[in-house]
Amino acid sequence: MPSSKHIVTVATLAAMAILTGCGSTVITKQVSATELWSTWRVDPEWKKLRTEALNQLDVAGLRKQWKTAPEKVLAELRNTSGKKTALHSAVAILAADLATERESKLRGADVLGLWLIAAEGAYYAVKESSKEVLLADEAEPARFMVNLYNRSVSHFVDLYFKKGGLRKGKNENIEAPGGNISVSVNSFRAGALDPLLFDELIPTNEVKIEGFTAKGRLPGVGATFSGVINRIPQREHLMAYTTRRGLNIPVTVAILFPKHPSGAKKSQADISLIDSTVRREIPFGERPLPVSRDTVAPLALGLNGINGTSLGLGGLLRVNDRMKLAGLYMLQPYAPKRIPVLMIHGLQSSPVIWRNLIAELEADPTISAKYQFWVFYYPSGVAVPQSRYMISQKMNEVIQHFDPKAQDLASRNVVVIGHSMGGVLSRSLITDVGDRFWKQFSTKDFSELKVPEEKRQEAKDTVFFKPMPQVKRAIFIAAPHRGAAMAQSWLGKLGSSLVRLPSDLLKFNMMLIKENVSLLRTGFQQNRVANSINSLRPDAPIYAALNSSPFVKGVPYHSILGDRGRGDTPNSSDGFVPYSSSHLDGANSELIVPTGHDAYESPLAVDEVKRILKKHANN
Fold first, then answer.
1. pTM of the model
2. To pair with 314 at 20 to 30 A between CA atoms, which of 81, 90, 434, 510?
3. What is the pLDDT of the chain when averaged over all its residues?
4. How far is the C-alpha of 231 from the C-alpha of 252, rounded, in Å?
5. How far apart are alpha carbons 288 and 254 in whole angstroms?
6. pLDDT in tens, 436-466
7. How far is CA 231 from CA 237, 263, 469, 614, in A?
């Protein structure tokens, strides 16, 4: 049974994790499209436009017929609408209204044609409006028509994809009032995504999210989806560095209607699945309109049910259980021409902390077009040198897997962002330590170390770590570059005693100490094994080595630090790391934000990361 001290310590560590931003559980819940549409139909703007649509029926003498033969009325309106914006709007409103009514009464009702002509009507109504009006925030008819277009496309594609559409590789005819519509897929060349890549398309407007603060949504035309790519054996090369859940990536779907039934015997619908990082605009008639994008929902769906506190605390206290999860994870398929941003979390933390920052960065068109985002997870109970070794090994594995000749931009130009202890790890990737770390332990030559031959290279790489040539820039967020006094406190000592390292690592370290007593300096001859907490002590060997070693020339680095809003720098602290520990004289830039240790959540920090990444891409 756990002791009272154990319970108090774990509770305190959990509270610290929550205070540093690791505590939220990401929860997603899908809402039915019928429920969403029912809510939307009580909107005052909808009621206004529906009234106007019914007035159009009065003008055409079709009001009574609408109650008994609505499909015939829609057919009549479609075939006579021409360039009349009011009639196009009426078709869109009435078709969506009828489809919603039928779906609410009969689940699985065949309403594909109705949703497609709702999208068609909204499409032609939008074509008649100016770009400025479409981008306005106020709920006016033109803006409402864009929303109606997006929602109609979303619901049609959702139903069509589930029925096997989009993936047959040939044109299909969809029955609709007023004439069939010929549907083709991927009319765009630039930025087109292959429908066969996705196992599921989840409409993001049907996803309710908890655990995110990021906005991550760009307004525009097109329905936004989370494209689900499952990790299956046939995709092992592509998915080798994703989680077992696979990938959820932002997808935008647009439907263009180049042929209208009033001017041709058969209407045409061109469906395109769009990578909005490549294609930013869609041609609507004679002018382009911006592509909509949702970067939050795909991330949230990928993290659904994951609690940052549990994952982080488990990585600190139950290293052996979490070691099998250690690795580098990609959030999109590998992109050879995009710069990787590698994000490294800190002590008792996990990659979940980066969710809001990643969503905000991906929502910036300039950044998402140039970068791809990778995260590294490691059980944070392991000492800094061992974690650093894991990172370098995994980075090299990724390059060998995707680009054995190291010719891709992604293999030669990496930006690292590290928070807290992750900042120390990031620093170690751009610091030329040489033999300075080894000399903290011994005055003898490393060749004299008694170690099994199969482990010699690993032991050498752990203490003689060299800078990684792929890393071209680093951003340190609340990093304790000179250690953290917390590691020397009673809580740090007690927390350190609770860390359970893997038995094979413990045995190996104990064997090294026992077999090399005469080789080690006096302070390291005891049977004391380093873990993450005691390796963060200000007097830890890793800091003596790093702070006496030069940074790699030509690799800029930046600092983002919290002062809890007190404005007392240089006497400030983020509550865990003082300014005196996180400040670096040679930093290319330094930003103080009014937050605690979770500085990565600050809007000012997000803007600063954006600024740095844009500068890096331009260089």
1. 0.90
2. 510
3. 86
4. 22
5. 13
6. 988 988 888 988 888 888 888 888 888 888 8
7. 10, 46, 31, 32
